[in-house]
Amino acid sequence: EDQVTQSPEALRLQEGESSSLNCSYTVSGLRGLFWYRQDPGKGPEFLFTLYSAGEEKEKERLKATLTKKESFLHITAPKPEDSATYLCAVREDQGAQKLVFGQGTRLTINP
Amino acid sequence: DSGVTQTPKHLITATGQRVTLRCSPRSGDLSVYWYQQSLDQGLQFLIQYYNGEERAKGNILERFSAQQFPDLHSELNLSSLELGDSALYFCASSLRGVSDTQYFGPGTRLTVL
Question: How far is CA A30 from each of CA A52, A54, A67, A91, B56, rounded to the nearest angstrom?
Fold first, then answer.
């Protein structure tokens, strides 16, 4: 069965302290890897889609990268407003081709 | 604001009851997806509808059912509610099928007492 594992479960950083979140996946054939941001009690907000190894996408202080087995979400010089849970999901290659989500990384940026 | 709307925002009910959650997709989107998010299970796919027809099923209980109407809004019906059904229920929509990016609504928080 397709699996998505995110690490760490929680990460606390100081404002301006850069870091990376990891998403490792096992799928028979990747049809897209998605990053979402979720604030407490709110719906997930779409950030990026990556399709092939080597692909990178950037948005403000966030950059997502993809290899054959994992994806990283790099956060450069984060601000307190970047505090949220970051969710990674992969689309199955077969069957229902549904999105399979990881458990998320809860990121806290202290001022 | 994703453009996906969900009502109600909060719902408190008792065990054994039945509730209906409503979702309106983004303008132009044909697919609607329902997800359940609980603390211990994360975000779990329940069911997908495309242009009125059921397209894919996930871990949806038999007590739960959904439909998509001609105006493309969707309803998720939850019956014989149990304490364990307490969760956040999200609707997402996409332009066509699962190949397209899914945009999520604000969710309905269901509390079963």
Answer: 8, 13, 11, 7, 18
Contact A49 B106 (CB under 8 A): no
- Closest alpha carbon within chain A to B110: A41
| A32 in contact with chain B, both atoms CB, cutoff 8 A | yes
> Average pLDDT for residues B47-53, to the nearest whole number?
94
**How far apart (Å, rounded) are the C-alpha atoms in residues B103 and B50?**
15
Percent of chain B past pLDDT 70, that is, above it, reads 99
Among B residues 93-112, those touching chain A with beta carbons less than 8 Å apart:
97-99, 101-107, 109
Whether residue B33 contacts residue B23, with contact meaning beta carbons closer than 8 Å, is answered with no
Q: Among B98, B101, B109, select the one facing A97 at the smallest CB separation.
A: B98
Q: Does B25 touch chain A (CB under 8 A)?
A: no
Residue B73 DSSP class: -
The distance from CA B11 to its chain's CA centroid, rounded to whole angstroms, is: 14
The per-residue pLDDT string of chain A (111 residues; one tens digit each, 9 = 90 and over) reads 668 999 999 999 999 999 999 999 987 777 889 999 999 989 999 999 999 999 999 999 999 999 989 999 999 999 999 999 999 999 876 666 688 899 999 999 999
